[in-house]
Design goal:
This protein is α/β, with parallel strands linked by helices. The chain has one domain: Divalent-metal-dependent TIM barrel enzymes (TIM Barrel). Helices cover about 40% and strands about 15% of the residues. The protein has 10 helices and 12 strands. An 8-stranded parallel beta barrel has the order 1-2-3-4-6-8-9-12. A two-stranded antiparallel sheet has the order 5-7. Helix 1 links the parallel strand 1 and strand 2. Bound molecules: zinc ion (ZN). Zinc ion binds next to loops. The site of zinc ion has 4 residues, from loops.
């Protein structure tokens, strides 16, 4: 059986997420641990963490399949010292909440060098991660997400992600998330078997395939290589239903948790989950 879920709201408390996920046909999920548009991290309400863990058991969700997505303000590649330090501190706080909730995986966009160049950005990110790993518990694994090729984004190629991993000291705490929309934006064409094989072998060559721990399953509103990063419902975009059928025909892909970041609400996600299941 595949592991599949969607990005879920935490507005009713963390403890409600396992049931909400179960109700849309999911057996895992992704969440933010606080409002992603502010720096401040709100502490977890008393007992919400305990109830959260109990409800994971109740709905048979393995904490090792869950992903926390970092806030949007974090930029570990920022050339501005104050932003860089704020990013490091915010990520430390978010990872501590992850540990408190017993969640294993934490997803972050590597960051943007804002014009300072790729090498600068990669070293800056690696240095930030060295600090973050010294100040957080080793139970959390950080996943670097591949990005759309736009702006000064680092991480649109596996070569770049591999370089970050090689530069970080304690890199056993690092893996990657593959986002199908961002990948499609950066010319990874998963609509053909050859395209998927190329993707798998590039990950293998750059860092080892076992670094791939999560997949963000999103269709793309724009065509191959557009670099626009606009997610679409599964089958309704340029990857399309046959594209996802091809992608999911690979055992290597199906064994990894699939998390939707498609538009809409829980009902729309339930629909996307049904679509994915119908392809298997
Ligand atoms: Zn994503």
């Amino acid at each position: 059986m595949i592991k599949i879920g969607a990005h879920m709201a935490i507005t009713k408390g963390f403890s409600k997420v396992p049931e909400d996920s179960f109700n849309i046909g999911a057996n895992t999920f992704q969440i933010f641990v606080h409002s992603p548009r502010v720096w401040a991290v709100t502490p977890i309400k008393p007992n919400d963490d305990v109830q959260f863990k109990e409800n994971l058991k109740k709905y048979c969700i393995d904490p090792q399949d869950i992903l926390v997505h970092s806030g949007y303000l974090i930029n570990l590649a920022s050339p501005k010292d104050d932003m860089w330090e704020k990013s490091i501190n915010s990520m430390i706080n978010e990872i501590q909440l992850c540990s408190q909730l017993g969640i294993k995986y934490f997803n972050v966009h590597p960051g943007s060098h804002l014009g300072e160049g790729e090498e600068f950005g990669i070293n800056r990110i690696a240095k930030a991660l060295d600090t973050i790993f010294k100040k957080t518990s080793p139970d959390t694994t950080v996943l670097l997400e591949n990005t759309a090729q736009k702006g000064g984004n680092i991480g649109y190629s596996f070569e770049q992600l591999g370089k970050i991993i090689k530069t970080v000291q304690n890199n056993s705490r690092l893996g990657i998330t593959y986002d199908t929309c961002h990948g499609f934006d950066s010319y990874y064409d998963i609509r053909t078997k050859d395209g998927v094989r190329k993707l798998i072998s590039e990950i293998e060559d750059s860092m080892g395939f076992d670094r791939l721990r999560m997949i963000h399953l999103n269709d793309s509103k724009f065509d191959l290589g557009a670099g626009k990063d606009r997610h679409e419902f599964i089958g309704k975009g340029f990857i399309g239903i046959e594209g996802f059928r091809t992608f999911l025909s690979f055992d290597e892909i199906r064994k990894i948790p699939l998390l939707l970041e498609t538009p809409g609400n829980d009902a729309d996600h339930a629909n996307d989950i049904m679509t994915v299941k119908s392809l298997l």
